[in-house]
Design goal:
The protein is of the alpha+beta class and 107 residues long. It contains 6 helices and 3 strands; from the N terminus they run H-E-H-H-E-E-H-H-H.
């Protein structure tokens, strides 16, 4: 799924009585990036129904972002990465690096 699809889900709002009356149909609405909002009088009591695969992909992207932030906020590690990247760019231009296939390919 694209970032836009993940961050801008389509929503359908239903109330609790509609959910009780048409549970199967309402649950079928929650497919892909389509989220069903179960409305309530108080916003804190509202619930969401979403597709498991969509939820897992959201979690995976969130974990990835958190790992990136951890690296970026670790000044010592980030400085080391930046220093290493300059050498990698130079080595790439000079043809000193092996391709992925050369390093990990099967014989």
């Amino acid at each position: 799924m694209t970032v836009r699809t993940l961050t801008k889900p389509e929503t359908t709002e239903v109330n609790r009585s509609e959910l009780r009356k048409k549970q199967r149909a309402v649950l079928k609405l929650a497919r892909g990036n389509k989220v069903v909002v179960i409305s309530a009088n108080d916003e804190e009591d509202e619930k969401l129904v979403l597709d498991k695969k969509y939820f897992e992909e959201l979690l995976e992207r969130l974990r990835s972002v958190m790992e990136t932030l951890e690296i970026a906020t670790d000044q010592k590690l980030f400085t080391q990465i930046l220093r290493a990247s300059k050498g990698l760019e130079k080595d790439t231009r000079l043809g000193k690096l092996h391709s992925f296939e050369e390093a990990f390919g099967e014989d």
